[in-house]
TrEMBL record:
Highest taxon in the source lineage: Bacteria
Protein name per the record: Peptidoglycan-binding lysin domain protein
Record organism: Crinalium epipsammum PCC 9333
Listed Gene3D superfamilies: LysM domain
InterPro entries per UniProt: LysM, LysM_dom_sf
Amino acid sequence: MSQKLTCPVCDRPEITDNICPNCETDLTFVRLLTEKKPVAVIPKPEQIPQPTITNKFTSGVVILILIMGISLGAVSSWLFLKLPSSIYEPAQSTAISPSQTSPQKASANKRIDDLLAKTPQTKPPTVKAKCTGDFRYKVRRGDHLWLIAERFYGKGKLWKRIAKANPVLEKRQNNLIEREILIIPNLEENCR
């Protein structure tokens, strides 16, 4: 039967549960401290059993096996590092000459070589890729198209490219709104 406790917070007496019904305090730790636990008895040195010959033999065998395992691992890793790589790497495949293949395979290979020789070798057509990668720019206070073109292109006179890429700016190129988002197109010379 569990011991009846008094709540340390609200002083309610005779609590049998681990939670006080009055203030809902957890009394688990208080209960553990107040309940009596059996004390472990420490044996006297003369009561401790002394190792026997079989215990000594068993521990000696275990230590011997442990030493053998460590030495075997050390020797095998040393051999792995010292041996030439051809021993533990897979062999490279060798090419088979046409004289070593069967006659059917040789004739099929010859027909394929003949077909490849007859087809004209043409280069794939070179297509100039369209320039992509335009990016957005948020207008700052004091910006105008000439200044933005100077900043991104190095030439202020290219402001018309920015105006052309942003149809919203039609008829108001000189009146940019702060925090307005503009599209800045890439130059063709940067698209190579």
